[in-house]
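Hi W.,

Here's what went into the run:
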Amino acid sequence: MGRWEPNARDRLERAALALFAENGYDAATVAGIADRAGLTKSTFFRHFADKREVLFAGQGMLAELLSSAIRAAPPSATTADCLAAALESAAVAFTPERRDLAPQRRAVIAANSELQERELLKRARLSSVMADALRARGTEETTARLAGELGVLAFSTAYARWAAPENRQPFTQIALAALRDLQASATTLGANADVRA
Amino acid sequence: MGRWEPNARDRLERAALALFAENGYDAATVAGIADRAGLTKSTFFRHFADKREVLFAGQGMLAELLSSAIRAAPPSATTADCLAAALESAAVAFTPERRDLAPQRRAVIAANSELQERELLKRARLSSVMADALRARGTEETTARLAGELGVLAFSTAYARWAAPENRQPFTQIALAALRDLQASATTLGANADVRA
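Here's what came out:
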């Protein structure tokens, strides 16, 4: 109790994901997760508020990374440049060492409707954080909102591709390619804008 | 009990919104809503599953309208044309007679974080319904997903403008204008798509 535990957070996360995968998310308990990790419940609670936070603890850091990168982009950067900078900055959270956890996390969420809702709310929050950061740079309201959604689509597409077992590319490369695909789609959707004007 | 009540659904909806506004959403009860409407609890439950459904009962119909309009669009329609058809079809749910309820509904949701989450999930569902309908027409995956988000942004922007006290325009006109604004933003975001390629 209270002593320093090497890699406690990582061990707890891996133990939780293993238990969620084996017995289902609902059946897992904090005591069971701590036990599986060879740690105590009190160590668990020093790292996570509850078992759900094991799956969503990264949201705050991710929001901060995306937002900071947009705010730090040079004044000459276009809105699309800002989104690219945001995605590049997020890559620190998606290192090769963490890639094996992603398919497990995705499978747990896909199997539970409450967690799926939580994931949708996370996406809405990330979209809104990016839109806010763009507004703070002076991006016009409609473009800021659409850019927030486009950024989150690029992020979630990239995350799914990065997590795929056959993938060997780093997150940044995948994310920038997803962003370019979405920009091409945006061009398609923007065309014929005056047909019904 | 059991007899036909004229406009029961509308009376229940207005009574619920009035109570939510006066005492807060959490304090309102089904019995109180029915009483305020001069109806019984069993009449309430013939129309709504619970008090939250008074605020979100339209979601299923709206999803159906948006989806059907996209599926019914002629083969020559562009993706943007499909979104315009979807928004036009939604207008039947946003008649002048219902406009005075909208600001109350928005205020109730804005004051309650659980309802805000529910509203975000509603938007995610509508986006996904439009993307599915576009995929069924053969729209490419990335464009379908982005179009779903763009459609929902157009819808939510239009709803907010339509609900504004100073507004006198019909929903369709507002929604198509919002769509055109978003298409212009999409063009902006699509530009420079190859800068980092």
